[in-house]
Input
Amino acid sequence: GFGYVGLESADGVDNEIRIFGPDATLALGTTAEVNAQYLRRTDQRPFYSDVGPTDTDVDMGFAELVWSPQGGTGRWFLTALYNHIEADAAVFTIRQGEPGPLTRYRAGALGGNYLLARNVRLTSEVQYDFDREAFRLVAGFMSAF
Output
């Protein structure tokens, strides 16, 4: 699990923040694992302003299945993911072109990854946003040096 309690200030306005939740991983043999996380965040003034929503709660969670047909040292990794976020006020964004802050986001995704080298990975993912009824496709590569 994890937790954070803090007081942050911007433009002379204080925001008391609390974040906490459990986190779990379950190995399914040598080729798959399930990851899950729940997070609850409360903000006294989420936009660091005396106008707008105050004392907000956001509940978030995800569940993910990662399957590597050849095991942990293989090159292929396939994923399935479900994300769920709910807030009591429009205070969050997922930065995918939505018109403004949201109160709910639910999405599922299927992905495929192929390791070209130890530090270079090809990746692709198709995602479906259940609330906006829209698909999103992401493809590219990741590297680290």
Remarks:
- The chain has one domain: 2-143.
